[in-house]
């Protein structure tokens, strides 16, 4: 599975199956369920899915798809 | 039960990733449809809402449809004290109270201590007071079972990690004392039990319990990796509080309680003893005996020649389990599902009260498919993991054990001797007289409420209405003048059976209505039920009642009682769905129903 597929699958698991495409600008506040609590759930899910450990700064920065794509590409 | 959760086996909590838990939890909740599930209301001093998806899945694995609800962050007592709060508008099915001392007093484990202002004992004592007050507040308006998290020994918030236990005023001893105080005080409130959060943290490891990032960002004290394990622990505790525990452990023999195959390896060849690999099986036998000590009956379902198996028990010097420890034995070549069905019938318990432990996956599958109600324990491939597999599901756990529990194995052995006597005495009447039975009946009180509540909670067969009153509801009836809650105990020449019966009678005007009539099936066919009914008649007479009403509510397990009242002169039967009520006037009752001649009436 490509990184994009895994990302989409993780977001659908956390926020619901009606997510179909991910735009860079989508994120906290624009995707249903991605509120402050949903954000933490997503961060925890991404860490387990991609075997990464984000730094505390990442928690505040990874608030949209574009930022997450960029951060995961660095791994 | 929901289709999607029927397929969920109890697995290892680490076997799914967070995303999978979240997705599965959503599927479970969405497919619940009109079923609201069990409202689990959480009052906590730290964030526990991230536990929800894990809790929903782990509860579903135990056939509980959980619907968690959380008080607003930072509110602990307020929702309970404010009678118009959202908390009180929930249909409370279960309440979790989780106060962490370090949330209330962030300095507690870092700065408090002798000579530094308030001592740790004082701070923790105040936490215990708050928890107890909160629990009492909930209990004043709700019957819902309550689980109270105890205090974990903090790790991150501790300046001394080396010598804390060297200091008798240090964190470890203060927390231990607070936990003892907490358990002692909540035991006085009906329907409240400890959720052993401290044990959970210790078992998983305090050093990795908290993820400091999640703690500081979200006030979540449980790391993501530990959430599934916390949920498993809480779900198992919830299920053990709600469901009666398994009553009987059915064991395979070869490669289960000893290593090797008796028929092939022989007495000398099987592995059992103090050295590896025999030590693994000896230690497993010790665990099994531990369950027996707590009142779990043991049975054997083994494909073997009985003589071969028996020889191991009689002649192997390292066998801890004895042939006599088993209440029912099926050693033959028939399918195990059939043998298990016979074991349930022989002991007189429902088949869903049996847990089956067998190293062979084919045998487990055969039992699962032919007797789906049997609890089939998922046995790992290596014998060193058997002990953990036996207990981790929590099937044999009950929040509190009564004296009867610890004596049960002996009680059933007495019953086997009675059966032997029965085969020697020709008529049933002669047999009953020869038993020298003595029945004692009294009002339920603090000393007997645990056993009374247990009979109400777990008796399925000899139970006319199967009303599962909570201990709190029971306490109210005991305290009320319009109810009698009576227990019945039985002794005979083979031993004491203890409390075997419970009746609850409600009095309205001059009518006595039998709300509950429950008897342990261990003492069936001994006319004890007639003694219990006569007691109700006599009590109703002293209360000047003119009529007694009895009710039978049919369930899958109590069909043998359908004619209980009709065969005892009750008339005017009214059928309403699964329920039939009938009545008898007090004069006919005292004229036609008499204390059984084979039973002596004992004084308390």
What can you see in these coordinates?
The complex is a heterodimer of chains A (75) and B (604). Chain A is mostly helical. Chain A is 59% helix and 0% strand. Chain A has four helices and no strands. Chain A is globular, with a radius of gyration of 11 Å. Chain B has 604 residues and is α/β, with parallel strands linked by helices. Chain B has an eight-stranded mixed β-sheet, sandwiched between helices. In chain B, strand 14, helix 22 and strand 15 form a beta-alpha-beta unit. In chain B, helix 2 (18-30) crosses helix 3, helix 7 packs parallel to helix 8 and helix 15 (336-347) crosses helix 16. Chain A binds chain B through residues 9-10, 12-14, 16, 37, 40-41, 44-45, 47-49, 54, 56, 59, and chain B through 17-20, 22-23, 26, 49-50, 53, 213-214, 216-218, 220, 224-225, 227.
Tell me the helix content of chain B.
Answer: 25-40%
* Oligomer state of the chains in this structure: heterodimer
Q: Using the CA coordinates, give the radius of gyration of chain A.
A: 11 Å
Given the structure, what is the number of helices of chain A?
4
Continuous helix count of chain B? 23
Radius of gyration of chain B: 27 Å
Poorly predicted parts of chain B: 1-7
Q: Which percent band covers the strand fraction of chain A?
A: under 5%
Class by SSE composition of chain B: alpha/beta
Largest sheet of chain B: 8 strands, mixed
Largest sheet of chain A: none
Judged by helices, strands and strand pairing, the structural class of chain A is mainly alpha
Mean pLDDT of chain A: 93
Total strands of chain B: the figure is 18
The largest inter-chain interface, given as chain pair and residues per side, is: A-B, 17 and 19 residues
User: Any idea what the shape of chain A is?
Assistant: globular
């Amino acid at each position: 599975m490509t990184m994009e597929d895994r990302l989409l699958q993780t977001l659908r698991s956390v926020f619901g199956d009606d997510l179909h495409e991910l735009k860079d600008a989508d994120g906290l506040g624009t995707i249903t369920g991605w509120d402050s609590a949903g954000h933490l759930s997503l961060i925890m899910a991404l860490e387990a899915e991609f075997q990464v450990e984000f730094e505390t700064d990442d928690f505040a920065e990874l608030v949209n798809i574009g930022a997450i794509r960029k951060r995961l590409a660095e791994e | 039960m929901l289709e999607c959760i029927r397929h969920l086996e109890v697995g290892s909590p680490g076997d799914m990733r967070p995303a999978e838990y979240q997705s599965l939890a959503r599927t479970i909740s969405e497919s619940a449809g009109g079923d609201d599930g069990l409202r689990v209301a959480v009052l906590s001093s730290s964030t526990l809402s991230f536990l929800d998806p894990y809790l929903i899945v782990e509860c579903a694995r135990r056939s509980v449809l959980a619907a968690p609800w959380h008080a607003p962050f930072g509110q602990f007592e307020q929702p309970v004290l404010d009678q118009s709060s959202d908390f009180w508008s929930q249909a409370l099915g279960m309440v979790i109270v989780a106060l962490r001392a370090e949330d209330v007093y962030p300095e507690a484990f870092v700065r408090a201590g002798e000579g530094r202002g308030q001592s740790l004992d004082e701070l923790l004592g105040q936490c215990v007071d708050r928890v107890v007050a909160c629990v009492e507040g909930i209990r004043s308006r709700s019957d819902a079972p309550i689980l109270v998290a105890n205090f974990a020994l903090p790790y991150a918030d501790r300046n001394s990690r080396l010598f804390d236990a060297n200091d008798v005023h240090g964190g470890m001893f203060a927390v231990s004392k607070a936990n003892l105080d907490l358990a002692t005080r909540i035991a006085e409130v009906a329907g409240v039990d400890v959720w052993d959060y401290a044990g959970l943290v210790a078992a998983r490891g305090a050093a990795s319990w908290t993820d400091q990032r999640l703690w500081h960002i979200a006030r979540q004290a449980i790391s993501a990796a530990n959430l599934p394990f916390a949920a498993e622990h809480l779900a198992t505790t919830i299920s053990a509080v709600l469901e009666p525990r398994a009553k009987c452990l059915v064991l395979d023999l070869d490669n289960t309680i000893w290593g090797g195959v008796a028929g092939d390896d022989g007495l000398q060849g099987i592995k059992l003893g103090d050295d590896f690999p025999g030590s693994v099986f000896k230690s497993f036998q010790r665990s099994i005996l531990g369950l027996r000590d707590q009142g779990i009956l043991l049975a054997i379902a083994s494909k073997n020649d009985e003589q071969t198996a028996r020889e191991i028990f009689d002649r192997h010097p390292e066998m801890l389990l004895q042939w006599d420890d088993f209440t029912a034995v099926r050693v033959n070549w028939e399918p195990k599902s059939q043998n298990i069905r016979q074991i349930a019938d022989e002991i007189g318990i429902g088949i869903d009260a049996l847990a089956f432990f067998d190293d062979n996956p084919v045998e487990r599958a055969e039992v699962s498919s032919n007797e789906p109600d049997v609890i089939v324990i998922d046995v790992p491939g290596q014998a060193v993991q058997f002990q953990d597999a036996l207990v981790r599901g929590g099937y044999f756990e009950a929040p509190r054990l009564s004296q009867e529990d610890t004596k049960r194995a002996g009680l059933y052995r007495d019953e086997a001797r009675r059966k032997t006597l029965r085969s020697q005495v020709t008529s049933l009447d002669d047999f009953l007289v020869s038993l020298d039975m003595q029945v004692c009946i009294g009002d339920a009180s603090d000393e007997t409420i645990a056993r009374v509540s247990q009979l109400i909670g777990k008796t399925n067969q000899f139970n006319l209405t199967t009303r599962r009153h909570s201990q709190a509801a029971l306490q109210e009836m005991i305290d009320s003048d319009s109810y009698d809650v009576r227990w019945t105990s039985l002794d005979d020449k083979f031993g004491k059976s203890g409390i075997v019966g419970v009746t609850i009678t409600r009095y309205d005007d001059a009518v006595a209505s039998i709300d509950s009539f429950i008897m342990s099936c261990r003492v069936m066919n001994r006319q004890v039920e007639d003694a219990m009914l006569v007691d109700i008649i006599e009590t109703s007479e002293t209360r000047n009642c003119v009529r007694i009403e009895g009710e039978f509510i049919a369930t899958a397990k109590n069909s043998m009682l359908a004619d209980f009242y009709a065969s005892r002169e009750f008339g005017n039967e009214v059928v309403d769905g699964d329920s039939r009520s009938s009545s008898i006037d007090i004069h006919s009752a005292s004229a036609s129903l008499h204390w059984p001649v084979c039973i002596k009436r004992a004084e308390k």
